[in-house]
Design brief:
The structure holds 2 protein chains of 2 kinds. Chain A is about 75% helix and about 0% strand. Chain A is mostly helical. In chain A, helix 2 crosses helix 7, helix 8 packs antiparallel against helix 11 and helix 11 crosses helix 12. The longest helix of chain A has 28 residues. The relative contact order of chain A is 0.14. In chain B, helix 4 packs across helix 5, helix 4 crosses helix 6 and helix 5 crosses helix 6. The longest helix of chain B has 24 residues. The chains are: A mainly alpha, B alpha/beta. The interface between A and B is medium-sized, with 30 and 32 residues.
Chain lengths: ~260, ~260
């Protein structure tokens, strides 16, 4: 089945997708006093804690520089991890539904992706709120943030879609993924700057696809400059590549997936 | 919405399951599999070369013993299972009621589940909104329960709600798999009546049941399936008679064998 057909099916069932996304978001804060308020308050509080801790332990010259840098990397990373972790098991958790009714299978990883993306947008808001507390010099480069977000979104969707299908066939995938994510966190310049690394190790960073994406966010948010052509190029390459690869894997595995649930 | 007519044409449909010990292979098995590939290829042909034409207006019942392939065939028609051989040509929107409330999320409220389930069955939000009063009235859910999580519902309430949502559809191809499981006598009676209207408005109805009396009342055409093949296809009474006769004969043969 081609991807185009998969997407047209998805359009037919858009109402289901909308329902799944909204119930995912609604259920988390249900019966809490602040409700949706938490989706902004939670990241703000987490970031404040991290900001205080890191400004005490980091080798960074000043908190005013360190904090935007830290969150410019951490917020995209957290979006990636949260989506991967629940997205990879999304087909397995909906097994009973998939066996009783026809629904485009893409709907399940996609609903997770969209719900986590909404969380991510709140996190971005929180990020600007926190760095505004410290010192914030708005720059024109921020106008390119939507493009960086699009690149991140494509990358995360490719990986999640692929994992959701692979995980049905090879259940080790989810476990392997959590190990790789832990490794990935330290292999991505998030809590350290690239300059702090030995030249030997710094080269290795280039092999981590997420490094290229994070560099773009660092440039825009913490350096306040436009990413250069190389930075855009590599980030776009990595993300479009992940998206094409993920969709290809998914369409290949999708057909007989029902027999493996 | 809206094909003028519906039909289902099956050409030599087959479905062979591969039997997996635990359904997924772990990495270990992937590396070891060349060593024991012969063992992995155990298969089971659930449906073997079924050719059927189901036309607009047909009211079909599939009968046959357990494990004959009836439900598998329904799932192929509903698009849940891909057939491993043959072709399906299908026109019409399928409403499968293979299990009541399949799409319910216990954490969501009754109202939210109505919208979710309606969406799964192909309604837009606006269409669901319009039918909400009728759904509520028919399901007899107390209004103060509507905004309560359905995990607090009794199984009867849950079933009534699922049934009422499903019945508010205008089905083209209606697929039913043994659904009267829960609910009190009063509701079952009411549901049976509603069900007949529901079936009457469908372009095509296909039912799988072991209840031969029910089969004879709601269907006009009977298809007897055994070992994944069509044994007999024709007017429902003839097919049921043939099926019952065969079942009695094989029972008698069994008893004879046991006696000896």
């Amino acid at each position: 089945m081609s991807l185009a057909r998969e997407f047209s099916r998805l359009y037919e069932f858009r109402e289901v997708l909308r329902n799944l996304v909204s119930s995912d978001l609604k259920l988390r804060f249900r019966r809490s006093f602040l409700g949706y308020g938490w989706s902004l308050l939670y990241p703000v509080l987490m970031m404040l804690i991290l900001a205080v801790v890191f400004s005490k332990v980091s080798k960074f010259p000043s908190p005013a520089k360190m904090i935007p840098y830290l969150f410019a990397g951490l917020v995209p990373w957290n979006f990636f991890v949260a989506t991967c972790m629940s997205g990879s098991s999304s087909l397995l958790t909906n097994e009973s539904l998939l066996k009783k009714i026809y629904l485009p299978k893409l709907i399940f990883p996609l609903s997770i992706l969209l719900a986590r993306f909404v969380d991510f947008l709140f996190n971005v808001l929180a990020l600007f709120a926190v760095i505004a507390l410290i010192s914030f010099k708005p720059s024109l480069a921020l106008l390119t943030l939507p493009l960086a977000i699009l690149i991140l979104f494509l990358f995360v969707s490719g990986v999640t879609i692929a994992l959701s299908a692979i995980n049905v066939y090879v259940r080790d995938a989810a476990h392997l993924m959590s190990v790789l994510i832990q490794l990935g966190f330290f292999a991505t310049p998030i809590i350290y700057r690239e300059e702090e690394l030995d030249a030997r190790y710094r080269m290795l960073l280039d092999f981590n696809p997420f490094t290229h994406i994070v560099r773009v966010f660092h440039a825009i948010i913490s350096d306040g400059r436009f990413p250069d052509v190389h930075e855009w190029g590599f980030a776009a390459l990595v993300s479009v590549g992940a998206f094409i690869f993920g969709s290809w894997i998914f369409t290949r595995l999708e057909r007989n997936l029902i027999f493996r649930l | 919405m809206g094909n003028a007519t519906s039909h289902i044409h099956l050409r030599d449909i087959g479905l062979t399951f591969r039997l997996y010990a635990n359904k997924s292979f772990s990495l270990r098995e992937m590396f070891l599999s060349p060593l024991k590939s012969a063992k992995q290829n155990e298969t089971f042909a659930a449906v073997r070369g079924i050719t059927l034409n189901i036309e607009h207006g047909d009211r079909v019942v599939l009968i046959g013993p357990n494990g004959a392939g009836k439900s598998t065939l329904l799932k192929i028609i509903a698009g849940i299972y891909p057939a491993t051989s043959g072709q399906i040509e299908l026109q019409g929107k399928i409403t499968p009621l293979i299990e009541m409330g399949a799409g319910f999320n216990p954490e969501l409220t009754g109202r939210e589940n109505i919208f979710l389930n309606a969406a799964i069955l192909g309604f837009t939000r606006a269409e669901a909104e319009k039918r909400l009063p009728k759904i509520l009235e028919f399901s007899e859910i107390p209004p103060d329960f509507l905004d309560t999580g359905i995990k607090y519902y009794s199984s009867g309430m849950m079933m009534r709600l699922a049934f009422s949502v499903a019945m508010e559809l205008s089905p083209e191809i209606l697929i039913l798999d043994e659904i009267f499981a829960a609910g009190d006598a009063h509701f079952i009676e009411k549901a049976t009546r509603r069900m007949q209207e529901f079936i009457a408005s469908a372009h095509i109805m296909i039912l799988v049941t072991h209840d031969l009396k029910l089969a004879a009342t709601v269907a006009k055409r009977g298809i007897w399936i055994d070992h994944g093949q069509v044994m007999r296809d024709g007017p429902v009474d003839d097919v049921i008679a043939a099926y019952e006769k065969a079942t009695h004969e094989s029972d008698a043969a069994m008893r004879e064998k046991a006696a000896i």
